[in-house]
Amino acid sequence: MNAFLTRPTFNTPKLQQMLADAGIELEVRDNPDVCPKNLLIEKSLQVDALLTHTEDAIDRGLLETAKNSGRLKVVSNMGIGFSNIDIETAKKLNIAVTNTPTEEAFEATAEATVALLVSIARRIPALHMERKSLTEDPAPSFSRPTAVSVRNKVTGIVGMGRIGSRVAKTMHHGFNNQIIYYDIANKPELDRDIHSQLVKLDYLMAHSDFICVNMPLNKHTKNLVNADMIALMHNKATFINTARAGLVDEQALIDRLNSGSLHGVGLDVYSSAVNTIAESNIALTSHFANFEDQAYNAMTDLVANNVISTLKNNTPITPVY
């Protein structure tokens, strides 16, 4: 049995050895850039398993072409998300799709969300860039922009899933924040624990000091936080997105930030539109929210075990459909 890894991952030798021990030969593309589409198609015709990253586009055309060859049995995605894969087509063609929803990955992303929130609230990115541009500390002045407190505020969570709930608990227990959230249903156990409250999205946007987007991207949530929602935020609000860029009207958010009517923004996911941001209280972390050693070791194990279990037993460990 053969597998193809689209580019080196966190612990490629470990991944390669785990598969080899199971009798699966892994070919690794020795290039850190996103795999070209033509190579993805070519390899999908030659292997039993594709090991992908969330930037690899596994679309209908690729899956249908691969199915015609009769080889490809599983696409094992390295990441919690799987919006890069045409799930409906994969299901129709009986090609398994897996992801890596490890507890460590959820914890890592939640920690990164809170870290971005606190750093923006305390204006750390802006203060850092200011000092880097000088040869000595700036003169003290009470006319300078101030930080905002994190304690005793209202945090609004857009998507109270496994990441959002961890953010909510941290903000409530750690900073005594009131938690409101938008989701398809309320979370009774969490509500009892931290006194959180399910609200409509427009209410959340208008009444939150900190807004954290932690919702999956799909056809129902695309552009959920649209221009009308962004206009509802108050002028001291801090906005954080560690989920997917497509959930948010990015240009509307940037326009609002550049107008000087937001406290700041922290984004782990975004497009090239962020190059037009003029305000200084901004943090961009390049889709590295869950990129830590503990999380990625666990994700590496799960990618390998998904491939092994699917090819050997036809039973994916974490199927996405």
UniProtKB/TrEMBL annotation:
The keyword Oxidoreductase applies. The keyword Oxidoreductase applies. Residues 13-320 form the D-isomer specific 2-hydroxyacid dehydrogenase catalytic domain. Keywords: NAD, Oxidoreductase. Residues 114-288 form the D-isomer specific 2-hydroxyacid dehydrogenase NAD-binding domain. It comes from the Bacteria. Belongs to the D-isomer specific 2-hydroxyacid dehydrogenase family. This is 2-hydroxyacid dehydrogenase family protein.
